[in-house]
Write a structure and sequence with these properties.
Radius of gyration of chain A: 22 Å
Helix content of chain A: 10-25%
Number of helices of chain A: 4
Oligomer: heterodimer
Largest interface: A-B, 123 and 160 residues
Number of domains of chain A: 2
Number of strands of chain B: 23
Structural class of chain B: alpha/beta
Strand content of chain A: 15-25%
Strand content of chain B: 5-15%
Structural class of chain A: alpha+beta
Largest sheet of chain A: 3 strands, antiparallel
Number of strands of chain A: 8
Chain lengths: 197, 697
């Protein structure tokens, strides 16, 4: 039974193995962060306490027992580490972050559309199963001067440029707003992409 | 069934959180209901219990609640903009995403499945084009039915009941859109100190990122503002174009993406300035949205290269004005030295200041900063600077840097354009103007067709699935999320127009019929009944029968009766009253439909009840002059002349015997006894006995 009509039409692979690729990416996220050693755990907790986001919420609850081991929880299909005392996520280790980055690259690595998994439906419609590589991804980068820039990307090269700080071009997000509501400005405020040399 | 939330779908620990995770439907005025399905486990993401003070209109009191509220707020904005009878679900999670101290993945979103060949369904039109992909939410709208009958694994499309069945990061859901956002944003090592702003009022600080704005952009992709062809090889998914491809036009080749070959699509994706929307609502709205004033370099002479050239503007110096600055272009020369290896890089003092003074300096990009070059040519007396790029690419990027002492305007041109101009300079004086072109809109081509982002090579943002960065005012769906965006997807923005063009037709009453084809666009009436044929459906017509009397006061609202005749004075006019005389006999069976006659008496059996029959006895004498109206007596004989015909007069003649005549015993005759004289009486009797009647007077 497939989605649209419960009619028992089974999935039909035209080419490739999208699912396998997705599972591979998933495995990168689905790590058992509970294996982090105590030192890293302590460091993470300290970081979390020191960098509570200023989104209007009150300060983080008090730090957890440093000896408390994270427990794993499932978030969107991925296994992540959670501090059992606070219930909050334990910041990823560098190793874990590297895997997240690999997952990001995978998310925007649509090299080809040839291998789309297509499932015919009884009513004649077709369902295409998109893997994560079809996602549009929003990223942010901050340059040395503190200028923030937000980009919507969909290729590994773009993701890499952002993560490596090479995408510090384009309109600055956190500068004074270029125009006010009401009367429309006459021209685009400043260059869209800039390089200094 | 698909609405059932299987307990096995999530870990038991998350069930409590899920009980309140799915927010209520969108506000009453929304035309599409978009709900957020909270995919987070208890205690994290949307369920983070960290106390939080309400901020910017977001009433949540925990971090998790505020996140979920912000998601729903953004979903509601889209929901109030698009029309669909099918609820749209977004499976959302806050989870760790890749980041480092100075950059971060904010989040992602996209349709989970794409569909083609959706069949029509009653008034719902189905797919607009055969063999053409559309996003799942759009497919459901056009099919008029929740397209998934059961949850599926997002990675395989297989029927499932739990996420675990799907494996990896895939989830089991019947949602249309998948969204992941970074739970660590702002923490140390994850764009440190730059967290989400969760308010609804867009009042984020310089050190916060407005979640709602990013969500509006990403949800836009998930709802269909996206093409699915590979930009690596141009391949189409399953060989089918998507509905977005059908509108993408390369104005250089004149082809839309759906009819291009793969290599042609790849080439078009980097054909900067030439990728435009072919037609439709987007281009219709361009004149009302995009402003004139495209910055450019115009070559005035020589004629061989005259025309407009794209430029990247500078952050420093004077901005380009509408009038601009004009002058001859001169190569600024400097020493080739450690500061700059060529004599055209302007990294040191200009050596031909005499030639440059009062002219526009042309220099090459490279080695030193743009502000260094600008300072040097300005010192030499140049009135403006043009930097020719030293690497291939388009559009020409802007010139960054800060130096308040620089007052001359500067621009950058592509290496290709630079070479063209340099070649002309070898044998000609090149005169140019740097200005804003008030004949060209920012973000549209010469035919006012909206341009799409097709940089070469790919630089900062995503290609093709965004409007061009030159668009002004800034558009929600540019690759850069600008800080001047408001929390709107309508207004001075082409986003909604594109949604219309790809198939999100306006259907305010969500009855499947586009407003433009709906005789009641604001009232659901799939049947389109229009009694009076006035093109205003009965469901919204104040005068259904078109008789000039509005339905609310019309005694027959669906039967034209401008006179409002009502024989029996009840609430129904005669034309729609089944019993006009209200005698309990329906008009169809009533022998006097307009005269109350519950007994239906019809003496002469002529079909007309006596109550309305002018000649009840059918004797040819109208009742009004008939001396026996209920007894046929054509001769109207009235022996005793009392006004009652003999046939209906029990006390009339003729006399029965002579005695009655002879002795005057006329007791059986009515008064007045005005019948003829005695003689006649006698005569009558005699005649009755066969005797000859004497002549008597």
């Amino acid at each position: 039974m497939t989605g649209r009509n419960s009619g028992g039409v089974g999935p039909k692979r035209l080419t490739g193995y999208v699912a396998a690729a997705t599972i591979l990416a998933a495995s990168l996220l689905g790590i058992a962060w509970a294996n982090s050693d105590k030192a890293q755990d302590k460091k993470n907790q300290q970081q979390a306490a020191a960098t509570q986001p200023t989104t209007g919420q009150k300060p983080t609850q008090k730090a957890t027992d440093q000896k408390t081991q994270p427990v794993t929880r499932t978030i969107g299909g991925a296994t992540v580490a959670v501090d059992p005392a606070t219930g909050r996520l334990v910041p990823p280790t560098p190793e874990e972050m590297a895997k997240l980055t690999a997952a990001l690259y995978k998310m925007v690595s649509r090299e080809s559309a040839d291998d789309l998994l297509i499932i015919p439906q009884e009513d004649g419609s077709l369902m295409g199963v998109l893997d994560d590589s079809y996602n549009e991804v929003a990223m942010a980068t901050r340059d040395a001067k503190g200028n923030l820039r937000l980009h919507c990307i969909d290729t590994p090269d773009q993701a890499k440029r952002v993560l490596e700080g090479k995408a510090n071009v384009g309109p600055i997000y956190n500068e004074k707003k270029a125009k006010t509501t009401g009367k429309k400005a006459a021209q685009k405020p400043g260059p869209s992409f800039t390089e200094t040399e | 069934m698909r609405r059932h939330l299987d307990a096995g779908l999530l870990a038991p620990i998350a069930l409590l959180a899920l009980a309140f995770a799915v927010l209520p439907a969108t506000p009453a005025f929304a035309n599409a209901t978009i709900t957020i399905f909270n995919g987070n486990a208890a205690g994290v993401g949307f369920n983070d219990p960290t106390p939080a003070a309400p901020v910017g209109g977001n009433p949540g009191t925990t971090l998790g609640a505020q996140r979920l509220n912000a998601f729903q707020f953004a979903a509601d904005i889209w929901g109030a903009t698009l029309d669909s009878s099918v609820p749209i679900k977004i499976y959302a999670t806050f989870e760790p995403l890749s980041c480092n101290a100075t950059s971060a993945t904010l989040g992602s979103a996209g349709t989970i499945f794409i569909w083609s060949n959706i069949p029509p369904n009653g008034t719902y039109p189905g797919s607009e084009f055969p063999n053409t992909w559309t996003s799942q939410a759009l497919s459901a709208k056009r099919g008029g039915v929740d397209i998934l009958t059961t949850p599926l694994c997002t990675n395989t499309g297989a029927v499932c009941t739990t996420n675990a069945e799907c494996g990896g990061t895939a989830v089991c859901t019947d949602a249309e859109i998948r969204a992941r956002f970074n739970v660590n944003l702002g923490n140390v090592g994850c764009l440190t100190g730059i967290p989400w702003y969760l308010g609804f009022d867009n009042n984020h600080t310089a050190n916060q990122i407005d979640l709602v704005t990013v969500l509006l952009h990403e949800f836009g992709h998930g709802l269909g503002f996206q093409q699915f062809a590979s930009l690596a090889n141009g391949a189409l998914p399953g060989g089918f174009p998507d509905v977005y491809n059908r509108r993408l036009l390369d104005n250089g080749t004149g082809k839309t993406w759906n009819i291009m070959t793969g290599p042609e699509r790849v080439a078009s994706s980097i054909n900067y300035g030439h990728l435009v929307w072919s037609n439709g609502q987007v281009n219709t709205e361009v004149p009302g949205v995009l402003a004139f004033g495209l910055p450019n370099l115009r070559v005035n002479s020589p004629g061989s290269i005259s025309g407009s050239y794209a430029v990247g503007e500078a952050q420093f110096g004077a901005p380009l004005s509408n009038v601009g600055v004009s002058g001859d272009l001169v190569k600024a020369l400097d020493a080739a030295n450690a500061a700059g290896p060529t004599t055209f890089d302007a990294c040191t003092a200009i050596t031909n200041a005499g030639d440059v003074a009062g002219k526009i300096a042309l220099v090459d990009r490279g080695t030193c900063g743009f502000i260094v070059k600008a300072a040097n040519v300005q010192a030499a007396g140049a009135i403006a600077m043009v930097v020719a790029d030293n690497a291939a690419g388009a559009p020409p990027a802007g010139l960054g840097g800060v130096d308040p002492t620089i007052v001359i305007p500067s621009v950058r041109i592509t290496i290709t354009d630079g070479n063209t101009i340099k070649a002309a300079m070898a044998s000609n004086t090149v005169n140019i103007t740097l200005a804003r072109d008030l004949t060209k809109r920012q973000g549209a081509d010469d035919m006012d067709r909206a341009q799409f982002y097709a940089p070469n090579p790919v630089v900062g943002g995503s290609s093709v699935s965004h409007y061009d960065i030159s668009a002004f005012p800034n558009q929600l769906m540019e690759p850069n999320i600008n800080n001047d965006l408001t929390h709107n997807v309508t207004g001075v923005d082409l986003t909604l127009a594109l949604m219309r063009d790809i198939g999100w037709y306006p259907d305010t009453d969500v009855d499947g019929l586009a407003n433009s084809a709906d005789n009641c666009p604001n009232v659901s009436n799939p049947g389109q009944a229009d009694l009076d044929g006035d093109h205003l459906g009965d469901a919204c017509d104040p005068d259904d029968d078109g008789d000039g009397v509005n339905d609310d006061v019309d005694n027959c609202p669906v039967d034209a009766n401008s006179d409002q005749a009502n024989n029996d004075g009840d609430a129904l006019g005669d034309v729609c009253d089944p019993d006009d005389d209200n005698d309990g006999v329906m008009d169809g069976a009533d022998n006097c439909p307009f005269t109350s006659n519950g007994d239906q008496l019809d003496t002469d059996g002529d079909g007309l009840g006596n109550a309305c029959d002018a000649d009840d006895d059918g004797d040819g004498v109208a009742d009004g002059s008939d001396n026996c109206p209920l007894v046929g007596n054509t001769d109207q004989a009235d022996f005793d002349r009392d006004g009652r015909g003999d046939v209906c007069d029990p006390l009339t003649g003729p006399p029965q015997d002579k005695a009655q005549c002879m002795n005057g015993n006329w007791g059986r005759f009515n008064d007045p006894r005005t019948f003829p004289n005695q003689g006649l009486c006698i005569c009558y009797i005699m005649s009755a006995h066969g005797e000859k009647c004497p002549s008597i007077k």
